Amino acid sequence: MIYGIGTDICDIRRIRASLDRHGERFAAKVLSDAEMATWRARSARWPERGVRYLATRFSAKEAFSKAIGLGMRMPMTWRLCEIGKLPSGQPVIVLHGRLKAWFEAKGLSVHITVTDESEYAASFCVVETKTLQGMPDQPPIQTSQVAMPAHAGIHSPMTPKG
After folding, report:
1. Which pTM does this prediction carry?
2. Is 106 left (phi over 0), alpha (psi -120 to 50) or beta?
3. String of b and e for 112-145 (b: at least 16 CB within 10 Å)?
4. In sequence order, what DSSP letters do the residues of 100-150 get, joined into one string?
5. CA 81 – CA 102 distance, rounded (Å)
6. Residue 124: beta bridge partners?
7. Which tens digits make up the pLDDT trace of 19-78?
């Protein structure tokens, strides 16, 4: 069952401006230790790749914070939420500390996707409940249990109206 969804679009130019103003301190506020190491390596090879990496992580963490319904309030913090990736390249969220404990106690799972193009980075996040906590086990609803009146106005595209 869906617990929450979140999306975010980030103007990469704003991230670049924040880096210009605050330097590495800005990146250190947003990134976990592991992300920081990746950011430094990418920035050293090609500074624009570092900016894009930071923008996608910023966007993904914003989307996640919206999907869990907390925004940037405890236990959600920038550094306790890490955007990793599987060997296939698929992005994943890795949680730490109090945020991890809160998330696991709620029995949640998460899906995240990130992208960047030209001047924008965007992310979409879906958080699901693993179980229906506190809900009695219910059998799935069978379609024969749902009554649809014949006059409901719903027609199959394959059958004539009438």
Report:
1. 0.78
2. alpha
3. bebebeeeebbbbbbbeeeeeeeeeeeeeeeeee
4. HHHHHHTTEEEEEEEEEETTEEEEEEEEEESS-TTPPP-PPPPGGGS---T
5. 12
6. 7, 113
7. 999 999 999 999 999 999 999 999 999 999 999 999 999 999 999 999 999 888 899 999
